[in-house]
Specification:
single chain; 6 helices; 2 strands; about 5% strand
């Protein structure tokens, strides 16, 4: 009698081995599907975080472009630093450059005025941001 035809409690041994393998395969597929579902959830979470970071980057770029506006910088430099555009009579043309190079360094340094420290004259309150993260979340919904 071969082991293929041997019976255990009325079942052939081959049938019991096949049933065990089938059960192991079913459990393996179920576990793989469950793990893949968890990974899909993690991927979706990361993709949502990426989208929120992209929205935040767009917001920060908009804030930077607002803060770097030349008119705003000019207004702040006039207000807090006392700077102004250079008058035309103080500009040197190309024909005056040899004369300026011939001047002694002390004469050139004497004509430069020292500006006050901008940190000493700046306001102590920090600038308000354009938008907060809660406003960003409301906009993206």
């Amino acid at each position: 009698m071969s082991w293929l035809n041997r019976r255990v409690r009325g079942f052939r041994l081959v049938d019991l081995v096949a049933l065990g393998l089938l059960t192991a395969l079913i459990l393996g597929v179920y576990l793989a599907k469950t793990i893949a579902g968890g990974e899909r959830a993690k991927i979706a979470t990361v993709e949502r975080q990426i989208e929120s970071e992209k929205a935040r980057i767009r917001l920060l770029k908009a804030e930077v472009s607002h803060l770097e506006q030349p008119a705003r910088i000019e207004r702040l430099s006039e207000t807090y630093l006392g700077l102004a555009p250079v008058p035309i009579k103080h500009e040197a043309g190309p024909d005056a450059l040899p004369q300026l190079a011939a001047l002694p360094p002390a004469a050139v340094k004497a004509s430069v005025e020292v500006t006050p420290d901008p940190m000493a004259t700046a306001p102590h309150e920090p600038a308000a941001p354009l938008a907060t993260t809660t406003q960003l979340a409301e906009v993206t919904r």
